């Protein structure tokens, strides 16, 4: 049976603790399901004022959004109630009471689960661990099928150290229970999927963080891109590898600029500027730009010499993830600098000249590689064209959504799920 035949008319509820603006994977899944004729509802958290504003870009989509406020965004009374409920569950668990680990995980879970369960669906698909827990509760309430997009390695997000042992064990227990309830499971990189398979003995399909060709409609491959290094994330802050780039910036050609885009933590930005000044660099070569609406993010990579994917490998998740930055950049025709983590090292040969894999700890080697790259205009042009072509042939959502839809179709067919 074709994916369109099986999914047409299917009621799907996607659940995430974050905003749609901060979860492009969920948005792409919702759009793909609607294209197949599914009836889609998105239940999501609301806690960031800037993301609340950028969520407006989804107002004209053919899926419905139900926002669940938590934290300060929810108002003082709800915030206190959510916090008290979480602390009570954790205290009960610590006292040996029969409290499920899921109840001790995140303050948004009860409200998210209640919102998801408010309407019946044929399948609930949770994103990230809090979304997975909430989706599972809603699925049990309605006797529906359950799916889970782990996205990241939620145990491996925490360092493997004794002071994190309790939280790692709690997350492992939640995942074990959750994954075995699911008929459909995905993750954002092959290595993260392989970890879940090895630790839990279930099938998990990798679905990459790639983006639609339509996001850069009208753009052309760039020739002789400006000598700028571009980094983008939701928040500009520490533990992102940016210090390594700031340290070598004074060693690069004077026209080279570092462009950071995201919600800035101002003390951190001030510290980076001071670090650059202390290294002998001009702080004016370091530019901070504001957060963009989700539909403008990929195009913002266009025209830069290199995009920066600077995973620092401080935990297993960072070793194994393949972040959005890589695939935004390729689709915009911008080659990408990859820090030398296992997952990025494995990806680099497939990207060929469109990738530069480097050791961030080797300041001299990093500066030498970047100087050579920036000095080779012909090589940069060829790399940009290769990135552009490669993204259109392989690393775009137009191709990858087939992986997602086939996995979901096969899972639902195997479980005997049909639209009601």
What would you report as the Rg, rounded to the nearest angstrom? 22 Å
| Ends apart, CA distance between termini | 17 Å
What share of residues is helical? Answer: 40-55%
Count of helix runs: 17
User: What's the order of the H and E elements?
Assistant: HEHEHEHHEHEHEHEEHEHEHEHHEHEHHH
The stretches of 5 or more residues where confidence is low (pLDDT under 50) are: none
Beta content comes to: 15-25%
Going by CATH, the homologous superfamily of the largest domain would be: Glycogen Phosphorylase B
CATH architecture annotation name of the largest domain: 3-Layer(aba) Sandwich
Q: Give the strand order of the largest sheet, numbering strands 1, 2, ... along the chain.
A: 3-2-1-4-5-6-7
- What is the overall shape? globular
Quote the CATH topology of the largest domain. Answer: Rossmann fold
Q: The biggest beta sheet, please?
A: 7 strands, parallel
Q: How many structural domains? A: 2
Residue-averaged pLDDT: 92
CATH class of the largest domain: Alpha Beta
| Helical/strand content category | alpha/beta
Number of E-state strands: 13
Short characterization:
The protein has 17 helices and 13 strands.
List the keywords.
13 strands; 17 helices; seven-stranded parallel sheet; alpha/beta; six-stranded parallel sheet; 420 residues; Rossmann fold
Characterise the protein shown here.
45% of the residues lie in helices and 17% in strands. The chain is an alpha/beta fold. The protein has two domains: 226 residues, Rossmann fold; 181 residues, Glycogen Phosphorylase B (Rossmann fold), CATH 3.40.50.2000. The strands form two sheets. A seven-stranded parallel beta sheet has the order 3-2-1-4-5-6-7, sandwiched between helices. Strands 10-9-8-11-12-13 form a six-stranded parallel beta sheet, with helices on both faces. The longest helix is centred in the N-terminal third of the chain and has 19 residues. The two termini are 17 Å apart. The mean pLDDT is 92.
């Amino acid at each position: 049976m074709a994916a369109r035949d099986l999914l047409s008319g299917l009621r799907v509820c996607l659940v995430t603790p974050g905003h749609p603006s901060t979860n492009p994977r969920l948005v792409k899944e919702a759009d793909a399901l609607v294209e197949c004729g599914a009836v889609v509802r998105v239940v999501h958290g609301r806690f960031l004022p800037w993301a609340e504003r950028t969520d407006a870009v989804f107002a004209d989509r053919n899926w419905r959004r139900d926002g669940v406020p938590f934290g300060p965004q929810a108002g003082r009374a709800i915030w206190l109630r959510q916090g008290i409920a979480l602390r009570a569950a954790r205290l009960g668990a610590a006292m040996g009471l029969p409290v499920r680990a899921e109840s001790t995980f995140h303050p948004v879970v009860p409200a998210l689960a209640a919102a998801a369960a408010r309407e019946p669906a044929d399948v609930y698909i949770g994103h990230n661990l809090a979304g997975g827990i909430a989706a599972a509760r809603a699925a049990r309430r309605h006797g529906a099928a359950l799916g889970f997009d782990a996205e990241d390695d939620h145990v491996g997000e925490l360092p493997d150290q004794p002071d994190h042992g309790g939280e790692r064990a709690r997350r492992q227990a939640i995942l074990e229970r959750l994954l075995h309830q699911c008929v459909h499971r995905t993750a954002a990189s092959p290595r993260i999927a392989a970890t879940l398979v090895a630790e839990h003995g279930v099938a998990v399909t990798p679905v990459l963080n790639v983006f639609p060709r339509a996001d850069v409609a009208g753009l052309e491959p760039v020739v002789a891109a400006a000598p700028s290094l571009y980094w983008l994330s939701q928040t500009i802050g520490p533990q992102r590898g940016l210090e390594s780039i700031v340290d070598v910036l004074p060693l690069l050609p004077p026209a080279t600029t570092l462009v950071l885009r995201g919600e800035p933590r101002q003390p951190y930005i001030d510290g980076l500027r001071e670090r650059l000044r202390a290294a002998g660099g001009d702080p004016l070569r370091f530019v901070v730009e504001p957060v963009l609406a989700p539909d403008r993010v990929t195009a913002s990579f266009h025209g830069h010499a290199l995009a920066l994917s600077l995973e620092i490998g401080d935990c297993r998740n960072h070793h194994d993830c393949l972040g959005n930055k890589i695939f935004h950049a390729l689709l915009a025709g911008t080659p990408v600098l990859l820090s030398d983590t296992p997952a990025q090292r494995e990806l680099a040969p497939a990207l060929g000249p469109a990738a530069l894999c480097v050791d961030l700890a080797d300041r001299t080697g990093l500066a030498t590689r970047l100087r050579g790259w920036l000095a080779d205009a012909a090589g940069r042009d060829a790399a940009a064209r290769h990135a552009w072509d490669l993204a259109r042939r392989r690393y775009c959502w137009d191709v990858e959504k087939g992986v997602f839809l086939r996995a979901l179709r096969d899972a639902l067919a195997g479980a005997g799920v049909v639209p009601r």
